[in-house]
């Protein structure tokens, strides 16, 4: 399966899902004009990838989320994305989410906490603060 690569724009994040390393990353600002159309190829790619690997139990995916801004529409689609990844997890595929945020950005940390703790989607996750300096 090919790498999913979507270049960042001023309104949408960069997406790189690499099935050879099983490192998936979404990073940047997320407030695309049409959030449904932005996330459509991502969800389709994940559906296809799950079909391809669902019988393999030795796979572990690290999913890095490194947002600097998320609007409410994007937030809803991130929850849909988490639900899709829960299907991977329930199929026996290892999943780990890493929520990256600038160490002084309390709002972004809280967004990650809300996303994982209050969405009722039980997936392994951790937080990783970073500094731009």
Task: Provide the spatial order of strands within the biggest beta sheet.
Answer: 1-2-3-4-5-6
Number of helices: 3
**Rg value:** 14 Å
Structural class: alpha/beta
Q: What is the terminal separation in angstroms?
A: 37 Å
Tell me the number of strands.
Answer: 6
Under CATH, the topology can be stated as: Transcription Regulator spoIIAA
Shape: globular
**What is the helix content?**
25-40%
Q: Which residues sit in consecutive blocks of at least 5 with pLDDT less than 50?
A: none
The run of helices and strands is: EEEHEHEHE
Strand content: 25-35%
CATH class membership? Alpha Beta
Based on the coordinates given, report the CATH architecture. 2-Layer Sandwich
Average the pLDDT over all residues and give the rounded result. Answer: 94
Q: How is the biggest beta sheet arranged?
A: 6 strands, mixed
When the domains are counted, the total is 1
SSE inventory with pairings:
Elements: E1 4-6, E2 14-18, E3 23-30, H1 35-53, E4 60-70, H2 72-90, E5 94-102, H3 106-118, E6 125-130
Parallel strand pairs: 3-4, 4-5, 5-6
Antiparallel strand pairs: 1-2, 2-3
Properties at a glance:
133 residues; alpha/beta; Transcription Regulator spoIIAA; globular
How would you characterize this protein structure?
By secondary structure, this protein is α/β, with parallel strands linked by helices. It is built from three helices and six strands. The protein is globular, with a radius of gyration of 14 Å. The relative contact order is 0.16.
Summarize the structure.
The chain is of the alpha/beta class and 133 residues long. It has helices at residues 35-53, 72-90, 106-118; strands at 4-6, 14-18, 23-30, 60-70, 94-102, 125-130.
């Amino acid at each position: 399966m090919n790498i999913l690569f979507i270049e960042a724009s001023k309104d949408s994040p960069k997406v790189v899902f690499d099935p050879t390393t099983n490192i998936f990353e979404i990073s940047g600002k997320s407030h695309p004009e049409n959030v449904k159309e932005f996330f459509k190829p991502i969800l389709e790619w994940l559906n296809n990838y799950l079909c391809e690997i669902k019988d393999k139990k030795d796979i572990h995916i690290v999913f890095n989320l490194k947002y600097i801004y998320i609007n409410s529409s994007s937030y809803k689609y991130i929850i849909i994305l988490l639900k899709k990844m829960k299907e991977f997890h329930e199929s026996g595929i290892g999943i780990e989410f890493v929520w990256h945020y600038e160490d002084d950005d309390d709002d972004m940390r809280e967004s990650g906490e809300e996303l994982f703790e209050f969405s009722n989607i039980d997936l392994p996750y951790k937080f990783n603060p970073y500094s731009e300096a």
